[in-house]
Structures are given as structure tokens and as C-alpha cells.
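Margin note: ligand = nicotinamide-adenine-dinucleotide.
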Amino acid sequence: MREVKHFIAGKSTIGHSKREGEIFNPNTGQVQANVCLGGADDIAAAVEAAKKVQPEWAATNPQRRARVMFKFKNLLEDNMDELAALLSSEHGKVIADSKGDVQRGLEVIEFACGIPHLMKGDYTEGAGPGIDIYAMRQPLGVVAGITPFNFPAMIPMWMFGIAIACGNAFILKPSEKDPTVPVRLAELMLEAGAPEGLLNVVHGDKEAVDAILANDDIKAVSFVGSSDIAHYVYQTGTANGKRVQAMGGAKNHGIIMPDADMDQVIADFSGSAYGSAGERCMALPVAVPVGKDTADEFVGRMQEEVGKLTVGISTDPEAHYGPVVSAAHRQKIEEYVEMGVKEGADLLVDGRGLSLQGNDDGFFIGPSLFDNVKADMQSYQEEIFGPVLQVVRADSLEEAARLPSEHQYGNGVAIFTRNGLAARQFAQKVN
Ligand code: NAD
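Resulting structure:
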């Protein structure tokens, strides 16, 4: 069985790992590889490797660091197909979405190519009597990133691309569910000219995360994942004196005004509520049509649209979306659908119990559509992170705008309208 190892000091290693996790192929439901689950010793080894090279890297002028990022960008483009295929086989998102995952990370690398300009400081003459002020941007040293399963290329690149271009060394702890692409990214960084030890990948679960949070030499931590863990990482990391940014869960709302272009609304919800099986932090799992006529038209047309969606294996070019990442996640989504039914919402399309012929053990779930969801329902208040669209009807823009503002996971929000004034007022109301 293939084994996904840590990548420390430019080398693939099982390090001190005694524990292993399983990596599934969500299309078949079978284990396709094992992953080393690291702990404090592996994090310490990665930090030592990072500390060795970071001072020299920081002393390398920014335009030379940017050249490595340019080369890395070219390598990403050259290896796009391979990266997308690997990503798709562990995550389950279709190839087009997998390419999008790499592409969005690549765009951050393009941004990092501009680091010589981005790192310029400021100078204020005469800030006080006889006092001039210089502001300089300097690297922190060794920093770390802890990333979720749903964007195994983009999110690591958000983090290490900028941190490394700024002169830091990086420890990446990717999701243990789809860890192969992050390792390939580290290999490509090496090929691009990054010194060994500048970007290290240590796999693992809570044990590796706790080791990062406790390690005094790691000066800053960036986390993306579910909200409970985000709170934990933020509280523990800051209590240990680190700079921490922690991004958590999401339940984004799309508000539909009576004057909206309904063709566009349907196409956009079809892509954003169900694309990538709803496993996107910027998915639109809640639709809020304003007024009865808008709601009736939206619900009728959406029900028809959902009937046209094709669920298939992630390499099927015809598939709208593929399987979800794990059996446990599919079960959680199905439990939320059941909860919605019990709470009294109207289940118009039920995606549960889907089995794909020839891939009967894959983690597939069909699209679900709920109407008449209410704000006090638990299935609305929590994040489902699956191909489930919940329609919450509102009588006015004011009522609609309150929903995302009061939601605990009000991460992003969209308004569909042809009226610029309504869009502007909406932007001022939602916070
Ligand atoms: P997750 O919270 O389960 O895992 C995220 C990371 O934390 C992984 O590296 C994981 O190994 C680690 N982890 C898991 N359990 C831990 C524990 N008990 N202690 C310490 N670390 C632990 O998240 P996920 O299921 O991989 O990703 C999906 C979540 O990420 C969703 O909630 C989604 O909304 C969120 N997300 C948010 C954004 C954003 O920008 N706000 C972007 C993408 C995903």
C-alpha cells in the first residue's frame, strides 16, 4: 500500500511516526494509501530544519525570493493535470473543480511574485518634533499553517506562498484526508529553487496540531477549518504567545430580490450550492427569496434544475459533482437532512441513499432541496457542508438582511438584484 510520508528538510521521511491514518478514494470507498500521523518529535525535526535555512533565506533579497515563486508558478502550470488528478482522487471533487483548486492557489503565487514591491516600507517625516518614522516589513522566522480537506492545494498556497516570499520558513500540517497534493507542492517548491527545509510538510491530527501550538520556535500560525477547532487553535496559540489567524465554518446566504435575473439566479445557485458537493467555504447553501412570487418562482425552477444535476465519479467529465470526502461526512449530511424533515421544513428533493452503479461503495449523495426552512431550526443554524440547499422565505429586504447578520456562520453573502441602490443599501445593512 502506498504510504504518504512527511517532507522534512527536503526529504520524504516517516520520521518518528508510530501512528498512521487511512486515505480513501471517495469514488470507490476503498483505502488507497496510508498517511504518517506525526507528533511533537516530527514537528521539532521540521522546526530545526526550518531554523537552519530561514536566516539566509530572509537575507536573500526579495527579488531573488520572487524568482523562486516565478519558477514555482511555472511548475504548477506544467504539472496542473497531475496535481488535479491526484487531488480529485483523494478529495472526490471533479477534475474541473480540482484544477480550479490548484489555479486559485496559483493566483496567490502570482501575487507573491510581486513581493519586492509588496514588502516596501513607509517613511513619515516629522511625525513629532525631530522624529521621523520608518516602517519596515520583516519576516517572523518559522511559521506554520494548518489546513482543511476541502481545498488541499489552494489553502496551503494561500499560506506558504506569501509567508515564504516574505522571508519566513514554513511548516505545513495539511488535512490528513487528502495529504498527497500538499507534499507534491513542497517537492515542486524544492525544484523551483527553495532551499531544503524552507517548506516542510508534517502530516497528522490533533497531536501534530498541539505540537505546533506548543512549539516556542513557531512564531505564527494560520488555521483554516471548522469553527470549534478554529476557536481552539486561536485560544491555545495566542495563550502561547503566537500570532494566530483562524478562519472557521460558513453558511453563506444568497438573497434574491423580485427584480433579479432569474436565469442567472438559478445557474448561480446550481453551481454554488451543489458544486464540489457543497464542500466549499464560499458555497451558497441558503437561498432567501424576498416576497411570495419570487419564492414560488425560485423554488419551482430550482426543483427542476436540481433534477438535471448529474452526480458521478470525479473523473467523469459529465458529472456536476463527485462523492463527498468520507463515509462519516456523508452520514453527517444525511443526518442533517433527516433533522430538517423532523423540524418541519419541506423536503422537495431528497438526495439520500444514492448509490452509483459500479461504484456502490463510493461516498455519493444526491442533491437535496428544502423549502420553508425557518431561522430557529437547528439544521439551518449549523453548517451542513454538503449538497443541500435550504430556502428561507423573507417578506422584505430588511428581514432577509438580518438572517446572515445574525447567523453564527455568516461568512459571506450575495444579493441578486438589478437595482444598484438596493445592492448598496443591502451592503450597508449586512454586517
Ligand atoms: P477540520 O476543522 O476538521 O480540520 C481542519 C484542520 O484541523 C485539519 O488539518 C485537521 O487535521 C485539524 N484538526 C481536526 N481535528 C482537530 C482537533 N480536534 N484539534 C486540532 N486540530 C484538529 O475541518 P475540515 O473538515 O478539514 O474542513 C472543513 C471546514 O473548513 C468547514 O467548516 C469549512 O467551512 C471550513 N473552511 C473555512 C474556510 C474559510 O476561509 N473560512 C475555507 C475552507 C474551509
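The pocket of nicotinamide-adenine-dinucleotide is lined by residues 146-151, 173, 175-176, 205-206, 209, 224-226, 229, 232, 247-250, 281, 383, 385, 411 (CB under 6 Å).
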